[in-house]
């Protein structure tokens, strides 16, 4: 089995990451921050409080300004399925045997589930300690409380007899349908099964499909690069629309909630760095300096999938992680490692429970923990996915999903922060799971894995 795919060299990432690095050198993150500020200012100016624009024109004007944002989101969502599938399969094909693949896959899954659970517990801790929902003016919330009865209908319970069929549904009977519905857990299982099959095949038979998947990966990144040019305009337009609709007072009133989420994400970053130091001996400062470009691009785009090729190259060339580990762990982590997203969901759920004065109880808290861990695994690494998952989470514990209107105005900055944590977690996982890690270099020199092949 050791000779199945070992003769197939992985495709170089330089062509896919050169443009992404250009966005980092062009300070895309700074342009995004400027766009955020301008978007809030413009939203206030054209909002109903100033009277400069008539109320009938405001929705039309803000919708057109938000058009680049809609296009950006659509492009990323369109390409995330082929990009993730191709990257996972190609990463698995870098393994030399099914035994190595089985060992790496088991350790990767345990690491991601464990760190996601830690993130959820951190979110529970900071939200319970600070209780940001108690500081929000609840005078105007009667309208949101009204539909509570209709929105909180409980889902039918799953009995032991139905559980086996629910587990078997993880395997997609129709992979195309799973892709259309963006059921990422089924998509990931499909990619994993195809990857295992390819590793088990002779390399002469596997080569055509691997070459096709390599072309799909590069094609996906061309579309991603197109989407990158829209990022500042997307942020500007979407924030104009939200500020004009909600008002700047609502955004500022959510400041303690924002601080709570960012505090939780900062604690999760410290946990990652502690794990890195204890398990690999790497210095956190050296690690953060090496992964800075990937973090900045993740912050700018709010999409771990869009940053994936740069994250892989960072792991290989700056962290000196083996190609087989980097190209398997990071694409898989892009979909199932959503620790930052899970933390945010817990804080947001408890925040809205505090705002609406709903006591979800210990059973509700345990349900939130379980659902946050489960829902974050298999979520697409696209902007705004946290809000979609959150709407499902709220209904399960009796909180009106209409409460999302309170937090959507500040979600953009939080989406950027949690995506940065997710990408950092992918890189930490690759470091921890790499058994062939070389000592850290003392200078700026890096090793090019292509030169050693």
Describe the structure.
- The protein is mostly helical and 453 residues long.
- The chain has a single domain (14-452), classed as Proton glutamate symport protein (Orthogonal Bundle).
- 72% of the residues lie in helices and 0% in strands.
- The chain has helices at 14-25, 28-46, 58-65, 67-93, 98-130, 142-145, 148-151, 163-168, 175-180, 184-200, 203-228, 231-246, 248-253, 255-280, 284-290, 292-301, 304-318, 323-336, 339-355, 361-376, 385-396, 404-407, 411-433.
- Helix 14 packs antiparallel against helix 19.
- It is globular and about 70 Å long.
- The model is unreliable at 1-9, 140-159 and 436-453 (pLDDT under 50).
Question: Which secondary-structure class do the elements indicate?
Answer: mainly alpha
Instruction: Output the helix-strand order.
Output: HHHHHHHHHHHHHHHHHHHHHHH
Shape: globular
CATH superfamily: Sodium:dicarboxylate symporter
Beta-strand segment tally: 0
CATH architecture type: Orthogonal Bundle
| Largest sheet properties | none
Helix content: over 70%
Number of discrete domains:
1
What is Rg? 22 Å
CATH class annotation: Mainly Alpha
Task: Return the CATH topology.
Answer: Proton glutamate symport protein
Strand content: under 5%
Number of helices: 23
| N-to-C span | 20 Å
Poorly predicted tracts of residues = 1-9, 140-159, 436-453
**What is the averaged pLDDT score?**
75
